Every structure is written in C-alpha cells, then in structure tokens.
Amino acid sequence: MISLGRAIGLSILLTAVAQAASPSASLQRIEPVDIVDLREVTDPQISPDGKSIVYSVLRRVSGAEHDDTSLWLVPADGSKPERALVIGEGESGNARWAPDSRRIAFLSSRANPLDSGKQRRQLWLLSLDGGEAQPLTKIDGDIADLRWSPDGQRIAFLASDPLPTDVRARIALRQDAVEVDAHPQMQRVWIYDFHSRSAEPVTPANIHVSLLSWSPDGARLALRTAQTPDINAHWYRSDVAIFDVADKRLNAPIAKRAAAIAPAWSPDGQRLAYSEIFDDGIGAEPRIYDFRSGKVTSCGNNYPGLLGEMRWNNDGRALLVHKFENTRTGFAQLDASNCDIKHVADAFYVGPYGFSASADGKTVAYVGSAFRQPPEVWVMSGKTQKAITKTNPQTESWQLGEAREISWTATTDGKTIYGVLVTPPGYVPGTPVKTVVQIHGGPEWAWWSGWLGSWHEWAQMLASHGYAVFMPNPRGSDGQGTAFAKAAKGDWGGGDYQDVIDGVDALIKQRIADPSRLGIGGWSYGGFMSAWAVTHSDRFKAAIVGAAPVDVAAMGLTTDTPDFITGYFGDPFTNHAQLDAHSPIRFLDKVQGAVLILHGEQDTRVPIDLGEQMYVGMRYLNKPVTMIRYPREPHWMHEYEHHKDVLTRVLAWFDANL
What we know:
Blueprint: H1 4-21, H2 32-36, E1 40-46, E2 52-59, E3 68-75, E4 83-86, E5 92-97, E6 103-108, E7 122-127, E8 134-135, E9 143-148, E10 154-160, H3 165-172, E11 187-193, E12 198-201, E13 208-214, E14 220-226, H4 231-236, E15 239-244, E16 249-250, E17 264-265, E18 271-277, E19 284-290, E20 296-298, E21 306-312, E22 318-325, E23 328-335, E24 341-347, E25 355-357, E26 363-370, E27 373-381, E28 384-387, E29 402-409, E30 416-423, E31 433-439, H5 459-464, E32 468-473, H6 482-486, H7 495-509, E33 513-523, H8 525-536, E34 542-546, H9 552-558, H10 562-569, H11 576-581, E35 594-600, H12 608-620, E36 625-630, H13 640-657
Parallel strand pairs: 31-32, 31-33, 33-34, 34-35, 35-36
Antiparallel strand pairs: 1-2, 2-3, 3-4, 5-6, 6-7, 7-8, 9-10, 10-11, 11-12, 13-14, 14-15, 15-16, 17-18, 18-19, 19-20, 21-22, 22-23, 23-24, 25-26, 26-27, 27-28, 29-30, 30-32
Helix pairs in contact: 9-10
C-alpha cells in the first residue's frame, strides 16, 4: 500500500511533469488582492448526531471597521452543497450545537432588539426546525465564548466585566489618563438558564477565565483561569481549576501553567485531560488528572512532535489527539492508561486546534487544506477523509506553485531538518531560479504541508511570479519534539540560523536556488532571523523584516509577554550581555542588502520602537532601508488594505532587488 506521504510525493511529481510539458496559458498569476480576497473557513462544529456541520466564513472588507463573518451549514457526508445559515450585518460566529442537534447557539454583533438595537456581541439561538435567530442576552459588553450544558438547559459563556461607571464617566469627559493595570477587566463565566430566561455571572470577580468545559453530569466546569487578564498571564500563567456550579465555588487549581487548550472530561467525569507548558514556556505536553486518586499522569514528553487538542473516546480508554510532526499534521490516539501514542491518520490541517467529533466519535470535522487548496471543512470517517466545502473555487484558475516537504542535514550536529519548498509553476528541475527564504514566527512554530497563501504566508503568490520559496523549520521549531523546540534557548541566530543556511546550501547544490538572487523575509521571529541574516552574511540581496525583535534586551522590558523573553534568555538584567550578543541591532554596520521594515503601530508584542531603531540606525549608517508603519495594527495585522499593502510591497521589494 502506498503511504500518504508517498502518494503525495507521486502526485506532486506527476503534476510537475505534466505542467512542465504543457503549461496552461489560461491560468492566471496570483496577485496580492487575490490572496486578500480569499474567504477564511474556521471553527467547524459537527452536530452530536453526526449529520451536519456548522462553521464560520470570514471575509475581509476594504474600508470596513470589522470583517464580515457569517455562519454556514453543510451535511457531514457532503451529499449537498454548503448553504448560508446566518448572514447579514454584524459578525456571527462561535456556533455550538445543542445536545439535541436541532438548535444552534452562536455569538453575533448584529442589531439586538433586546438591547435597543445595540450592536454588541451577544448570545443568539437558532432552531433548525424553522424561524429566525433570536437573541438571548443583552449584557453590558461583548461575549467571548460559549458551551452548552449536557442536558441542553443552560449555556455557559464568557464575558468581560465592564469598566466601573465612574471610570467610564471620566473617559467620556476626556479625563482619560490611564494608570497601567489599575482597572483590570476580568472575564468571568456567566450561565444562561432557559427556564428563567436570564443570565448571571457565576465565577469570582477577581479571577479571569479564558476556557471552559462542562463535566458530563453538568455539575462542574473545568476552567482555565488566571489572576490577571493580560496576555502574558493568558499564555504563561494560567491554571486549570474546577468550578462547582450549584454552590458557585471555585476550587484550588489542579494544574499550573496550563496551555491554551480546552480541558477534556472523560466520559465518566472521573478524569480530566489538559495540556501544560513547561516552566520555561517552551513546549507543552498532555496531562491526565484523576479525581479519585489526585494523581497526575504526564504523557508525550518523548513524543517526536507536538500534541494539541484532545477528545476522549467514548469508552474512556483513550483520547483522539491532534498531532504535528516535521511539516505534517494529523491525528493520533493517546492511551489514557499508559500514555502510548499510536498514529491514526495524516491530514492536511491548518493550525493546532479546531476539530470536533460526533457524539459517537465516529465522525470528525476539522479545517483542512492541501498544497493546492485553501482551507475548507474536511471530514474524517473511519479511514476516509475528504473536503466537503468549496469556499474559494477561484483558486482553480490560479497558477499555483508545486510544493513538497524537503529535508537536509545540519552541519552542526548531523540532525535532520525539515521544511517546505514551493517552486514556480512549470519549473524545470536543475534550473536555478530566484529564491526567497521565508522564516516562520515563534521560534516555537512551524511551516506545514498545506496551503501557503495569506498576508503572512507569501509562498504561492511569489511562486506564481517565478520564485522558489524555501520555508525551513530550524531547531527551535515545533514538529520534532520538546528537546528540538528548546534547542534555540539562548541561541537565536546560532544553530537555528545555521540550519537555515544549510538548507539554502542544499538547494544551491541541487541547482534549485540561484545563489546570486537570494532574498529572505519573515514576521516576528521570522523578521528577527531576516535581520540576523543580513547582519551576518552577504548572501541575501534583499530582506523583509516584519515586526521583528531586533533588540532582544529592549523587547524583554517593553513587550506585553515578558515571560517569552525570559524563557529563552533568562533575566534580562543579569543576562544583558547575552541578549545584546543575539540582537541584530548591534550589528547594523555589517548590513549587506536592501532592507524593508514592516511594523504595526499598535504592536504591544514587539513594540514599533524596535523597528524604528533598525530604520534610524541604518539611515544613520547610510544603508539601503525603507520602513512602513501600519496605523491601528497590532502584532498580527487585521485590516484588508494593510494585508494587501504587505503583499504588494513584498512582491515589489523582491522584484526590484532580485
């Protein structure tokens, strides 16, 4: 039997040969606006009876304050095309099925008749038996997430407390000086009761809740909690605690440093699976807590990849777990008794979270993609997997590059390093072409075997314009286990950079990359690595430095996630010399190549003054540099026109310099 990997490789080879022999003149090159106009499929939720899937579709709108988000419905067997379920003004998402598979609760910011037409994100209910969606709440503020109780009589949801009345009054008078951290807006659990048709907050006012999960008997909630609502606490300092619903009591945490993965109850309610990050914040592993014994079992520490979201099998003996290895994603089975991990299926998968299963566990819905297909709703039933939606049919007329997983050997220690290579349409093997190296963010993140086309993933657009795009997963990345992910600790620009260069050398040796026309770029850590490359090598003629921590020491004292930097480099005061040694800003006099700096003005993760330091420094040294600032944008950009601008500048910059 041909493995999935070999079948993919054979398909790529045959397609490449066919295209090289007779490239189709009718296919169009991919322009920046084409990528930005792609609609984004998210959050597929299969009904408990396994018959239907509701999911969200996001469409970015030029000049609009918010994206257009709608809900769609499709039969799980793909027997009928998808159809719009909730569309119109406002954002609608976070759809969740009632246990009866006939009702859907969701969040929407459409005009709310219960609240004088105000457009705040509230809880709505839609019956598939007919009729219009009806609002259930009118609380002061936006709702963030929701979960049905097992009996279908209550809905637990998350909402932030509003600012105190006196604070809002002062803000209205422009008496709006801000004392940092003085008025934290905690996110609390509320419960809507269908009998009383009312909702009330139930968790303490001094605890911030980010995730929730009902126990099978509906008596308890497993919560991911933090002492403060800031992003640093969200990622690095959150606990798992059990909340008793009847007496509204939050018990002492059963786990510290919980990862942002929803806790999963065993069918009998006697065990809880969750994921916990390591003390340095790098890597995570599943844990299983037994309520009867109080014992915690740690699983997967030696697993050569990354384990993500989990769901118990109905027999309570094992869990279905999302996995990521090298560049490929899929599903594994985790034995709850001995932590054995067995392969279930490979899957073209987007992101580490987001699958749902029918009540009997036989059908799984997830967001999947392929090298030549943007994300869609996919279904896995038994050994069969297929896409059942067709949200972006226009891509069938695009000139798409040929993508494949590749590997090479690190010169530092002989380790096998993996990545993805995308070559231009009709590429003839053995022909060196202009090549862009795109580095992912993180460092603990990774490129994947799937669709690579967004404002942040440039591969398909650049390939359409004649580029080879090399996307490496150097040490520090996910996909090869915890030790590999931790290998970049204290060494940004060291072994990780050499892994990238080794990959470039391998492509040059294979006569794929043209050594005289090399570019590099990336966002966040990818921007750091791009800045490092042009301060430590003359090989790259052009670089794009996106939202990059070019001064690691300064970032440690200005970022909203200080635990991130200390996890990699320790105390920024004690280890200041080490942080300086790994900061591209200290080597600007050695820059060779033209540099384009891109940065959001409201970036609190990597504040814009870091980008400005590099720009002003290079100007002072008469180095070729351009900087673009994006108003209103945080670290991860959102607006339609800015997405288009990033892609337009990326293409133009490499065209001009390579």
